[in-house]
Write a structure and sequence with these properties.
The radius of gyration is 19 Å and the shape is globular. It has 278 residues and is of the alpha/beta class. It contains 9 helices and 10 strands. 41% of the residues lie in helices and 23% in strands. Strand 4, helix 5 and strand 5 form a beta-alpha-beta unit. Helix 5 packs parallel to helix 7 and helix 6 packs across helix 8. Strands 1, 2, 3, 4, 5, 8, 9 and 10 form an 8-stranded mixed β-sheet that branches. The protein has a two-stranded antiparallel sheet with strand order 6-7.
Length: 278
């Protein structure tokens, strides 16, 4: 689910879920590490349509240069066009784009960088890639705010007898091997904490659950799209669920349409600050 329309649909739920407490910690850190009146350089890895920048830039004070990095030129163009022009205190926000993968990122490329950010990206990495990202950030002395990593926890109200089976299949799908790469999926948040801590970084994590349903950001449209994608991925992983999928989806969509269904999808945010930078 990386299409621009999906990223746009989920942006409000993302914004509601991310941890404001970690942002306050980050603000305090940047106040001590960015020279007064200086420009904070923030690199957004796998930026998508730029939702992280739109959420965070206005929560941080002072001049900022956002370096948006993504493999998709269409997403990059949209992200650059829709970034805010002002920080929390009205200071200017500039934007630069870099097209390409970030799994081979080197510490030298982060020279002078004040912060690395990601949003809903870590589950797509392998253990080796996560470890390399942590090593790169720590070597560069660059803090990282890594948000909205799935945890493999989904809670439905009301429940359905098949919820657990579909959830288990979806988690297995996220941990699948793809092109010779075994993805971290729901293990990515803890992998990030471990990778930074073993290199001496100060790490804080906070839960950042999506809350989907009537009256929530994205409303019934977001919940329906998430359901369809979630069930489809589960069936791709576990073919035995295909025979139950249509009826299960119908029950869930009926409950959604009536305004009865709510879903909490577990995510975690991680803030890592290399030793000597706290």
């Amino acid at each position: 689910m990386c299409a621009p329309d999906w990223l746009t649909l989920r942006e409000g739920a993302d914004a509601d879920a991310r941890s404001s407490e970690l942002v306050e910690r980050l603000r305090s850190h940047l106040e001590t590490t960015v020279a007064a009146g200086g420009e904070a350089i923030i690199t957004d890895l796998g930026c998508g349509t730029g939702s992280m920048g739109r959420w965070l830039a206005g929560r941080l004070p002072g001049p900022q240069l956002w370096v948006l990095r993504d493999r998709d030129p269409v997403l990059l163009a949209r992200a650059a066009a829709d970034m805010p022009s002002g920080a929390a205190d009205g200071a200017p926000v500039r934007v630069r784009t870099q097209q390409g993968d970030f799994t081979g990122l080197r510490a030298a490329e982060l020279a002078g960088t004040s912060l690395v950010t990601t949003s809903a990206v870590l589950d797509l990495l392998t253990s080796e890639e996560m470890d390399a990202l942590a090593a790169t950030c720590v070597e560069a002395g660059c803090p990282a705010l890594l948000t909205l990593t799935v945890m493999g926890r989904v809670e439905f109200v009301p429940s359905d007898p098949l919820d657990a089976e579909f959830a288990a299949a979806f988690d297995a799908h996220q941990r699948r091997s793809e092109g010779g790469r075994r993805l971290l999926g729901p293990d990515a948040g803890q992998a990030a904490v471990d990778a930074f801590e073993k290199r001496g970084a100060t790490v804080a994590s906070r839960l950042s659950p999506w809350r989907l349903g009537a009256g929530r950001a994205g409303g019934a449209e977001l919940l329906e799209e998430w359901l369809r994608g979630w069930i489809s991925a589960a069936c791709e992983q576990e073919q035995g669920l295909v025979q139950h999928a249509a009826a299960y989806l119908r029950r869930r969509l009926d409950s959604c349409a009536s305004g009865e269904l709510s879903v909490e999808v577990g995510h975690v945010d991680v803030l890592a600050i290399p030793s000597g930078r706290s």
